[in-house]
Write a structure and sequence with these properties.
It contains 8 helices and 17 strands. The chain has 298 residues and is α+β, with helices and mostly antiparallel strands. Bound molecules: L-MYO-inositol-1-phosphate.
Length: 298
């Protein structure tokens, strides 16, 4: 069994995410290149998405033949199997992110490599329109658990980082989520899929939620929604239909800021539902979403 230092993985994630965000910003400035559609006419993938994911893959996998990468545009790719490469255990953690290593975050023993879960540009529609709410998201998964993650808003440069057990941070400040306890006073973020039938169902769920909360925010990038809830900029967030790359890093940031990040009915966060809420509010919103069968529909 090899050991891997989650802060070393965070170093690697931050270096890659910053480079990816820089490339995304350059493409945005120069023109984002061809824009293709994926599952529907409104589900976009740009040449920039592909270029950024290729850069992330190169930076994260080069020299680490035992690591794998799951990316939105390329799917699963791996460079061989086996234990963590030696350099993952020898190098001291030279953290490039702002937060200091926290007490109690021990190196992890694993027989597998690291699986990097990346979204090259989360919030692609915002990116195409030039709305400054799109992000590069990089998460490191070891033994099936995300242990380090970074989200960089490629428009503003804001950067959120987290190591499991080490807190969530932005610009050297440790994040704590909302303490709101009343659903009626909760500002709730959400999002919608690209398929028309799913959007109609999600709108019907929203019809039941909107009258019972302070208000709704639809910001357009799940990774940044999860960082917003970690900041307390919104009190809670829920969305059906997310992919692992949408919420892997942002979900750890939210968890480390004190939020409960779950699915519904005892399920983990996943395509059926991602719900992030402060402990005092999570149950109320959870039960409302169950009542509205928010994880159902197309
Ligand atoms: C987006 C998510 C967002 C969701 C959008 C879309 P993409 O990801 O971040 O939360 O509401 O429908 O799925 O497609 O921009 O990478």
């Amino acid at each position: 069994m090899a050991e891997v230092d989650p802060y070393h993985l965070l170093d690697r994630a931050v270096i890659a995410a910053r480079a990816g965000a820089e490339l995304a910003a350059q493409w945005r400035e120069r023109g984002i290149g061809a824009v293709d559609t994926k599952s529907t006419d409104t589900d976009l993938a740009t040449a920039a998405d592909h270029a950024v994911e290729a850069l992330l893959s190169e930076l994260l996998l080069a020299g680490h033949p035992h690591d794998q990468l799951l990316g939105e545009e390329s799917g699963e790719s791996s460079r061989g199997e086996g234990a963590i490469a030696a350099e993952d255990t020898d190098r001291p953690a030279t953290t490039v992110s702002a937060e200091p290593p926290a007490e109690g975050v021990e190196p992890l023993a694993t027989a597998e490599g690291v699986r990097w879960i990346v979204d090259p540009i989360d919030g692609t529609v915002n990116y195409v329109y030039g709305l400054p709410q799109y992000a590069v998201s990089v998460a490191a998964e070891v033994g099936g658990q995300v242990v380090a993650g970074v989200v960089v808003n490629a428009a503003t440069g804001e950067e959120w980082t987290a190591v499991r057990g080490g807190g969530a941070w932005r610009s050297g400040v440790r994040l704590t989520c909302s303490t709101e306890e009343t659903l009626q006073r909760a500002l709730v973020a959400t999002g919608f899929g690209y398929d028309a039938a799913r959007r109609a169902y999600q709108a019907s769920v929203l019809t039941g939620v909107l009258p019972l909360v302070r208000d709704i925010r639809r910001l357009g990038a799940a990774a940044l929604d999860l960082c917003a809830v970690a900041e307390g900029w919104v009190d809670a967030y829920f969305e059906k239909g997310l992919n692992p790359w949408d919420h892997a890093a942002g979900g750890l940031v939210a968890t480390e800021a004190g939020l409960l990040v779950t699915g519904l009915r005892g399920q983990p966060p996943g395509p059926a539902m991602v719900l992030a809420g402060p402990p005092a509010l999570h149950r109320q919103l959870h039960d409302l979403l169950v009542e509205m069968q928010a994880d159902g529909g197309p």
